[in-house]
Write a structure and sequence with these properties.
It is a multi-pass membrane protein. One of its GO terms (molecular function) is ATP binding. This is histidine kinase. Keywords: ATP-binding, Cell inner membrane, Cell membrane, Kinase, Membrane, Nucleotide-binding, Phosphoprotein, Transferase, Transmembrane, Transmembrane helix, Two-component regulatory system. About 55% of the residues lie in helices and about 15% in strands. The protein is an alpha+beta fold. Strand 10 and strand 11 form a beta hairpin. The longest helix has about 55 residues. The radius of gyration is 44 Å and the shape is rod-shaped. It starts with a helix and ends with a strand.
Amino acid sequence: MFKWLKNYMPRGLYGRAALILIVPIVTIQLVVSVVFIQRHFNRITVQMTSAVVVEMAYLLQQVNDAPNPVAARAAISPLGVPLALQIALPSDPVKSDRAITDFTARVVERVLREGLVNLSAVDFETVQAKVVLGFDTRHGHMRISFDRARVSATNPHQLLVLMAATGFLMTVIAYLFLRNQLRPIRRLARAAEAFGKGQVVPYRLSGATEVRAAGKAFLDMRARIERQIEQRTMMLSGVSHDLRTPLTRMKLSLSMLEEKDRTELERDVEDMSQLVDSFLSFARSDAESDQTETEDPNAVARRVIAKFNRTESRVKTGELEAEGTMRMRPASIERALDNLVGNALRYGDQVRLSVLTGRGDLRFVVEDDGPGIPAKMRGEALKPFARLDAARNQNKGSGVGLGLAIASDIARSHGGHIRLGESEDFGGLKIELVLPR
């Protein structure tokens, strides 16, 4: 039932933590201000008004006991100055008036009417900072006015200002403390994100015990992965040497045979050599030695297109929408695009390479007019050594099913992914290499 509330909640840890801090502070201040202060000053208002009621009752008694208006005025005139009252007898009738937002006036009027029987009207608005009372006496209408401060407690501005200032100060202190606690978490998140993109940034343990434990686990994991990659690279170097040496000897031996006897064998040796190169290229994809650089994605796309069009112009240049530069490993991206464009040329006659920008990402899009890949088989196509005979015409090429897998590994090392679809313009396969910006 509270799912709608999630749309208005902060997404980041800073915002949520600040909300956790600010909401209780504001709630406490509101509760104290409205419940305690309002009730407290209402009681004070009742007490002060009750004192005025006693004075008004005495004046009314003096007026009503007098035999005539002259005697009534003579009885109450000496009381006006000592009691700080302005008295008019007789006077014009008084009309009741009170502001809607004046909550204290309601309490004052209620107490006055409960204690004074002859009270006809209470006016809080006609004379500024004054309360005007109208009475019906035996000698006519009587008008009495006095300062509003006598019946209403002064608004606790000092207390409210002190509460607001203290709340603001404590919020700032809590924010600074919170920032110091969240900074190690953000540093850990940046280090993990960078490592997911193939970058190793310095990171040292700091923060609370739980954050240090998470950071130590991350460092241990990163060390294990780096050690595994190093061991794998060393093993592949040995495998490369061990496999290429016999292949070289086989090529030398074949060169001594008659041409009619060596044609088929040379083709087999060449296929074996390509297979070894493809396998080593795939296994080495997560151990690239090229460094992260600031590069123009449009320039990378143009280099790949120019490379394939040196012999024949079959790769078209699509839209190049990238603005400015971004951090990437240019050699790895070019290698991934080489595989994607090479696969497209193997299965189609027309190929187009574009660079498109989206909300927070950048896409290298390769489209062809080949047979494409059915939607249900696209997940399988990204796996190593996948050869989808029913989907792609294998007679058009001798691939070993590693092109998409290598490109997918390179995309993941940059924090991105590979997305397969259908080209709207060519009708064949559309491959998007998506990188976050």
